[in-house]
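Subject: for your reference before the review

Hello V.,

The reviewers asked for a structural picture of the protein, and I figured it would be easier to keep everything in one thread rather than splitting it across files. Below is the amino acid sequence we used in the manuscript, unchanged from the supplementary table.
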Amino acid sequence: MNERKVKITSEIPGPKSRELRAREEKNLAPGLQRFALMAGIVVEKGNGSTLTDVDGNTYIDIIGGIGVNGLGHSHPKYVAAIRDQVEKISVGSFTSEPRVELLERLGEHRPAPETHRTQLYSSGAEAVESALRLAKSHTGKYEFVSFWGGFHGKTMGVLSLMGSDFKEKLGPMVPGSHIAPYAYCYRCPLKLKYPSCGMACAELTRKQVKMNSTGSVAAFIMEPMQGSFGNIIPPKEFLPAIKSVADEVGALFIADEMITGFGRTGKYWGVDHSGVKPDIVTIGKQFGGGVPISGVIAREDVSHAKPWSNPSGSSSSYGGNPLVSAAAATALRIIDEEDLVGNSQRVGDYFLTRLQPMVDRYPFVGEVRGAGLFLAIELVKDKETKDPLPKNVTYRIFHEFLKRGLLTMAYEAKFRIQPSMTIDRETVDEAVAIIEEVFDEMKATGYWQLG
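And here is what came back from the structure prediction:
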């Protein structure tokens, strides 16, 4: 019998966490990530798929830094690489051995044969903004097409392409931004059923672009699978259909692989599930292993477009410095050496098989979906109407998981699950046991029907 990973020794949050959070709150601006505010814990250390707070409570973490924690917390090879590099040199834009290794390792796993030129940045939004500038430089056009539910960052250019109500009160948006429906089949925007729909959403996109654009579309930008909107997995025909629309109007295809890249979905790239060959790819999150690094990978001919390719035209003060390059190169080496892409597929399949019976077992579980360790549970009030559980219920679910030692994103009705790619079956079993305990209590008491 494996020893339980969860160890709860105090109330949550405990007294040390409460004291430190109170001190922080005096100086921290509002707007911290919701799960951190709701949990109220102060972390002290992490190991693999677990986190321990300053009060000595140890939790299983299936938030995974929202796609950042691919390697698990404090992977020893990763820790050693950062320690070694920071003693040598950590800043600057000069060539360094770690950056050479990083670029070579990225080249070994090209998203498409023609995509191998990489520029490095420090945040996801910064990389996507650069990809938009590159598309403009190459095509001489200025319009962009994104998708409902899409999330590419919070800076103004990419905010204009965000497919949600997050933009409210933040206008005006950048002109030339078009947002089309995404193939979210559980909640089809056209009220159709797959596969009899015939990818009608893609056809609607074709018509929308022709009717609404001025013929100046530089690029389509799409997450191969949508992360922030609820770990949405489109049919395999969707990306090729959209790529064909982009080709028709002479636009580039940008794949935003911030969340789906480097094995998260059980394949190295999210586009690998569809066979689409992107022109530009934006990368980030788990290939940094925890350090803030992102990038743009582009086709050879696209990457030479000016003014993007002029000296300092696509650079970043922090992009590709020796410290982050050493960290990211090590992360890519670990992903390969430890077959984390394969582990994501195998353990992700196992996780999905453990979750799927919940659809029949619980009246409030509408759908379970997953690709690799990119999983989600739809929590609903009614399986026919698919109305989501209200926040007063999902917030309670979050806290019920928390007090049992499971860190989750269950505060949303689209309950996203993206643990470390190093997670094993035993840890999955322990996490599922906690989910079942809470869901059994919900079903027995009926509190899911409140609100």
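For the response letter, the relevant points are probably these. The radius of gyration is 22 Å. Residues 261 and 269 are 5 Å apart (CA to CA).

Happy to draft the paragraph if you're swamped.

O.
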